Amino acid sequence: MSGPALQQLLFFALLVLGLYLLVIRPQRARARALAEVRAAIEPGRRVLTTAGIQATVAAVEQGVVVLEVAPGVLVRFVDAAVVRILDEAPEPSA
Q1: How far from the centroid of its chain's Cα atoms is residue 24's Cα?
Q2: Which domain holds residue 73?
Q3: pTM for this structure?
Q4: How does pLDDT run along the chain (94 residues), one tens digit per residue?
């Protein structure tokens, strides 16, 4: 390979590496974190939705979470709408 061709190949290799480090890897980390949040959803937990609503989980169904936003007010959300769990997991009593 000649000098310019090798430089061009090196440039594209560095470009792909930069794309991976700046875009793909952080996106995978965010997706993994959201999957962990969805796995931890259970009745009684306080959660935050993508709309900014803070609510208590009343029930978990297949792909749907029933949230209680006020006493007696139940709202159904897809489980992907939950972005954060606001309280820690309850401690098991000994």
Answers
A1: 15
A2: 3-85
A3: 0.67
A4: 778 888 999 999 999 999 988 888 999 999 999 889 988 999 999 999 999 999 999 999 988 999 999 999 999 999 999 999 997 655 555 5
The whole-angstrom separation of Cα 40 and Cα 31 is 14
Q: Is residue 92 part of a domain?
A: no
3-class SS string, 52-80: CCEEEEEEEECCEEEEEEECCEEEEEEHH
Which structure tokens are listed for 61? 């169904």
Q: What is the CA 41 to chain-centroid distance, rounded?
A: 12
SS3 48: strand
Q: How many domains does the chain have?
A: 1
